[in-house]
Structure formats: C-alpha cells, structure tokens
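User: Predict the structure for this protein chain, please.
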Amino acid sequence: MFEVGQRVVCITSGPWFDLDGTEYPSANAPKKNHVYTIKGLLIADIPPVIGHLYLELDGFDMQWFSQWFRPLETRKTSIDVFNQILVKAPKPAKPTVDA
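Assistant: Here is the predicted structure, written as structure tokens:
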C-alpha cells in the first residue's frame, strides 16, 4: 500500500502515542491534512498496527503508524489537453479599415 518516496496525507489530529502508550507532544507530530513524503517503511505484525512510516518532520526522520495516513491522490487531468485546444483554435482575422 505504501512505498518509499510516496507522498501521503495525515488523516488524524492525534492523540499521538507509541506502542507502549507514551504520548508524543502534538507540536512534534504530523498535522492533519498536511502532505508528507515517506522516507522509509517498517512492516509490523503487532495488531492493530499494520506498519510504520518514516516521515521527515522539521528536518528529523520520525516513525509514525501507517493507519494515520492515506496516499496522496494525484489529479488525472493534464494541462496538455488545454494546450492542444489553444493550438487548434483558429487565429482571429485582422480587422480591415475602410477608407
């Protein structure tokens, strides 16, 4: 589902905690609806944890539960379609001046 280099969106606002129940200060945590790039992956087999994502936050690589993120959806529309419309558009005729 996730891969290194993939961009993801944070889908929760916390609380942020570790497997042992230690809570992280929210100032050091990902922000809801912000986009992050995955720097590394760790597959976990500790229900309900699916895996961990290593994200760079404020210059530091930190580990977060993968359930707190979703893949960033990219737009399928390309500007090339609109550029082609402009190329095919007829040129306007120059106005003539009657004397």
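The first strand starts at residue 7 and ends at 10.
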